[in-house]
């Protein structure tokens, strides 16, 4: 999304760092603890969804379009870096563990977000409006929300102790 890119970039780097730290730390844990760490991973994947939805709402209110060249160039640079990471993690995409699958989904989502942001930047060149950025933000939010839900549900399925009481 086209909000303060420097700040957003720092937050995203922090989120990726926390995901990697969680996974690397949890690899040495017991199976039950790794499953519980997957719930935390789902929360970390949810962060970009919340940020994207919040920014989209702000853009709807403010109507401020992003600067298309900055948006596009930033998306290209981030996409190259995230694509390399996603390719390195590709063998985890069908992993049985929610923790390892979650790492793949987070990397994949970053690449998809970069592609969508690039598209918004190109469209904004021809149609100077906040709406391409808003639509892309909503799509990015939905992609990350779906991935977080998938990791959470897989973690719950791996550990029956994490099942919610359906009688409430």
State the CATH class. Mainly Alpha
Gross geometry: elongated
CATH homologous superfamily grouping? Cation efflux protein transmembrane domain
Give the helix proportion (percent range).
Answer: over 70%
Sketch the major β-sheet: none
Count the beta strands. 0
GO molecular function, one term: monoatomic cation transmembrane transporter activity
Pfam families: Cation_efflux
Membrane topology: Multi-pass membrane protein
Subcellular location: Membrane
Keywords:
Cation_efflux_TMD_sf; transmembrane; Alpha-lytic protease prodomain-like; mainly alpha; elongated; membrane; monoatomic cation transmembrane transporter activity
How would you characterize this protein structure?
- This protein is an all-alpha fold and 168 residues long.
- It has a single domain (5-160), classed as Cation efflux protein transmembrane domain (Alpha-lytic protease prodomain-like, Up-down Bundle), CATH 1.20.1510.
- It contains 5 helices and no strands.
- Helix 1 runs antiparallel to helix 4 (98-126) and helix 3 packs antiparallel against helix 4.
- It is elongated, with a radius of gyration of 17 Å.
């Amino acid at each position: 999304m086209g909000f303060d890119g420097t700040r957003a970039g720092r937050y995203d780097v922090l989120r990726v760092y926390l995901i990697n730290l969680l996974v690397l730390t949890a690899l040495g844990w017991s199976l039950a603890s790794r499953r519980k760490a997957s719930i935390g991973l789902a929360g970390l994947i949810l962060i970009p969804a919340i940020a994207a939805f919040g920014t989209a709402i702000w853009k709807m209110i403010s109507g401020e379009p992003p600067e298309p060249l900055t948006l596009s160039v930033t998306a290209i640079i981030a996409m190259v870096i995230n694509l390399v990471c996603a390719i390195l993690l590709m063998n985890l995409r069908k992993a049985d563990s929610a923790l390892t699958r979650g790492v793949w989904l987070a990397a994949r989502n970053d690449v998809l977000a970069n592609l969508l942001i690039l598209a918004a930047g190109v469209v904004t060149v021809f149609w100077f409006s906040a709406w391409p950025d808003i639509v892309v933000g909503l799509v990015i939010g939905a992609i990350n929300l779906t991935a977080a839900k998938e990791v959470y549900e897989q973690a719950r399925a791996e550990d029956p102790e994490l099942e919610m009481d359906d009688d409430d």
